[in-house]
Design brief:
68% of the residues lie in helices and 0% in strands. With 380 residues, the protein is mainly α. α10 runs parallel beside α12. The radius of gyration is 27 Å and the shape is globular. It comes from Hibiscus syriacus (Rose of Sharon). Belongs to the PPR family. P subfamily. Keywords: Repeat. This is Pentatricopeptide repeat-containing protein.
Length: 380
């Protein structure tokens, strides 16, 4: 079982950390002691408390749940209709203006809002059409920022060739080809698994003044390599970074820790975490904590998971809802239902709202145990 105890200083003191609401640490090992403090209720009080039948309670819960679902559906429906109407209105307005005399006289705000909306929604085909319309306007001037946003969008949509065409058009229009533009194209290549082109572009960037790859460039390429388990390429990139004096940042380390954990490469994960802690400019955050405890929890190393969780809390890192979902899932899959209940009580005490993931994890755990009665109590 891998542990983190080998390093003499597991966490550096927090530096310039903004004040946060300090939560009382969740001590999962003291459940039984805490529960034994409550005294047994009086028999009359117990009868009065449980005067409603089980079926009545469930019926009331079902009605409340149904009412909430109906309200949520109505809200979601209104929002969806609003978005659709706004999109259709924008589309109709632009189409009506695309006449022989009007196509070059659109207001900048109209076109730019339509373009921004499509980029945000990753509607790449529609975005490129609006961009063509933008370039037809009399007031149009090449804008590198717009080109870069489009190239990033095309990368996310797995359209590397379209991204390359825009990159070339950007150059043809006289835009300054800066580091951000090259990184956007490199990201488009790596997201689609075109690593030969991505690495070739990386080498090309090293010879271009003001476009030398930085930690963000390397981090993007490292993440893409890790997603296809190309750990050999990752080692080459890390070595290249070191030779150029580029230190990984928190995002780089978190990406590595998460990937090593999912691949059950605990030794590499721990070495990366220790290296991160030794650095002066990098501090672990909640993403570091979640990746670490997920790695140990998903492999059944519950004790190590709990120790890591407590150490991160001692370092001043506060959990989020994803943290609790990981704990619940880990306990549920190993049959630690009492500890699951302790986590849920903690979430309720400090007002952490359940997500769909939380409900699915709890339902799956108690359903697997055949204890749906406990699930009904949790809903109450």
């Amino acid at each position: 079982m891998a542990t983190l105890s080998a390093h003499p200083h597991p966490f550096l003191p927090a530096v310039n950390r903004p004040p946060t609401h300090i939560l009382k640490p969740l001590r999962v090992s003291s459940i039984s002691a805490a529960k034994s403090e409550t005294s047994a209720p009086d028999k009359d009080e117990e009868e009065e408390t449980w005067s409603l039948t089980v079926s009545d309670r469930r019926r009331e819960k079902g009605l409340v749940h149904a009412e909430r679902e109906e309200v949520n559906r109505k809200i979601a429906s209104r929002k969806a209709i609003s978005v659709i109407l706004r999109r259709e209105a924008t589309k109709a307005f632009i189409e009506t203006k695309r006449g022989p005399n009007n196509s070059k006289k659109l207001l900048p705000r109209t076109v730019l809002e339509a373009l921004h909306e499509r980029i945000t929604a990753l509607r790449w085909e529609s975005a490129l059409k609006v961009f063509e319309l933008l370039r037809e306007q009399l007031w149009y001037k090449p804008n590198p920022a717009i080109y870069i946003k489009l190239i990033v969008m095309l990368g996310k949509c797995k359209q590397p060739e379209k991204a390359r065409e825009l990159f070339q058009a950007m150059s043809d229009e006289g835009c300054v080809m800066n580091l951000e533009a090259y990184t956007a194209l490199l990201s488009a290549y790596s997201r689609s698994g075109l690593f030969d082109k991505a690495f070739y572009l990386l080498e090309e960037m090293k010879d271009i003044p003001m476009c030398h790859p930085d930690v963000q460039t390397y981090s993007i390429l490292i993440k893409s390599c890790l997603q296809v388990f190309a750990f050999d390429k990752v080692r080459v990139l890390l070595s290249d970074m070191a030779s150029r004096g580029i230190r990984p940042n928190t995002v780089t380390y978190n990406t590595l820790i998460d990937a090593y954990g999912k691949a059950k490469m605990f030794q590499e994960m721990e070495m990366t975490l220790v290296e991160m802690l030794r650095g002066k400019d990098c501090e672990p955050d909640v993403w570091t904590m979640n990746s670490t405890i997920r790695a140990f929890g998903s492999s059944g190393q519950i004790e190590t998971m709990e120790k890591c969780y407590e150490r991160f809390q001692s370092a001043g890192i506060q959990p989020n809802i994803k943290t609790f979902n990981i704990l619940l899932d880990s306990y549920g899959k190993t049959g630690n239902y009492e500890k699951m209940s302790a986590v849920m009580e903690y979430m309720q005490k400090y007002h952490y709202s359940w997500t769909i993931v939380t409900y699915n994890v709890v339902i799956d755990a108690f359903g697997r145990a055949g204890d749906l009665n406990r699930w009904n109590i949790c809903l109450g």
